[in-house]
């Protein structure tokens, strides 16, 4: 095994990685896609039972129907009368009559479930 000559480096200098800029571009693309997905998720926020009644008042008809449909699927085992139309009607009456203040939708849902006609 030959010995290195005096004054010469014993390790080779590595060539720059040509995929470095490509990796940075890929990382930036992944970050941008993640931010876009997060922003889209916020735009498609749904009404939840933890929302305030004032939020329900400002919600679109489609959002209200979506909430009523989800509630009907959840409570249909208790009574077949707890359908989407019942929840739409009951929540509308509950929200529009009286002063809801800072009540959450879950209180209105409990009232609707308790008041279901037998």
Summarize, please.
The chain has 118 residues and is an all-alpha fold.
Instruction: Tell me how many strands there are.
Output: 0
The portion of residues forming beta strands comes to: under 5%
Gap between N and C termini = 97 Å
* Helix run count: 5
Major β-sheet annotation? none
The chain-level structural class is mainly alpha
Shape: elongated
Radius of gyration: 30 Å
| H-E order | HHHHH
Overall description:
The chain is mostly helical and 118 residues long. The protein has five helices and no strands. It is elongated and about 100 Å long. Helix 3 crosses helix 4 (84-96). It has helices at 20-43, 53-58, 61-75, 84-96, 105-114.
How is the topology of this model organized?
Blueprint: H1 20-43, H2 53-58, H3 61-75, H4 84-96, H5 105-114
Helix pairs in contact: 3-4
Protein traits:
5 helices; mainly alpha
